Amino acid sequence: MAELTGAALEILAFGVQADEKPLIERAFAGHHEIRCLDVFLNQDTAPIAAGYEVICTSVNCDLDNRVLQTLAAGGTQMVAQRSTGFNNIDLKVAERLAMTVARVSYYSPYSVAEFAWTLAMAVNRRVVRASIRTRDFDFRLDGLMGRDLHGRTAGVLGTGKIGEAFARIAHGFGMKLLGWDIAENPACLELGMSYVPKEQLLAESDLVSLHVPLMPATQRLIDADALKTMRDDAILVNSSRGGLIDTAALVTELRAGRFTGVGLDVYEAEAGLFFLDKSLEAIADDTLARLVTFPNVLVTSHQAYYTEDAVGQIVDATVRNVLDYKAGRRSENVLVPRS
């Protein structure tokens, strides 16, 4: 059990991937001790944090009312989240418990934008299917025909830093750009992007990519009606948050033979599945089990951010957040300030 007093802290980090561990340990060296666990924080694992003033969490950790209550009872006073998203944290409860919460407000937007394009190109050019065939020495081209993206239309839902990076790549392909957001990005306008209503973007885009945060206003932004608005031969990519898409409605459209391809790096019920080895277990999630069977769907396990550059920036920002907490400083990363 860690002590709650003294200048140096012993920090408990949940949900640490094997590739992340040396980066995290190296970044905290000389500042504070850190203990890395591969288990995720939830109601069952929260008691492990007893005695740790500061804990470090990932986006697939669950910090609901019960978990936060358990953490507070054990002496935890700060949560340092290793992600930009924080929809997994009940901020109102954290504030009531006088618990400081900080996140990483910025890391390489290119990591996610480039991976979104990786998904788009993979489903468009049937890369996964082709790879499986050639492993069996089947070199036929039947069913592998894709489309040039040059001259077609890319619709970008959310034109912040990541959406802008995605749009720049689309511009490099020679695509027409449509955008949708609460505010126009001048950099995207310079690329020739036209901002239009969401319904128009969905109806006119050959490729739709999601880059908006998950919040009540964007929950299931792509619902059954939105999916029906899209072109039958469109490509849909989501590298942001799984809750942006009504997955059951998406399965219904896929069963009807719609969409050239769908690339998903996130899934609305990914907690308890993604980042874990479930290969020897029966998957109880019928929607996900059905989704991965479609030949025009590619699902990856929330890895868009997972580059040396981005993870390094995330870890460095997390260290700064803890140092700021100890020094009583407040930065733009703080979601719930120290009371």
TrEMBL record:
| Broadest EC class assigned to this enzyme | oxidoreductase
User: Where would I find the D-isomer specific 2-hydroxyacid dehydrogenase catalytic domain in this sequence?
Assistant: 16-335
The EC number on file is 1.1.1.-
Any single Pfam family the record assigns to this protein: 2-Hacid_dh_C
Domain D-isomer specific 2-hydroxyacid dehydrogenase NAD-binding as annotated: residue spans: 118-304
| Family in the record | Belongs to the D-isomer specific 2-hydroxyacid dehydrogenase family.
Q: Name the chain's protein.
A: 2-hydroxyacid dehydrogenase
Species this protein is from: Streptomyces davaonensis (strain DSM 101723 / JCM 4913 / KCC S-0913 / 768)
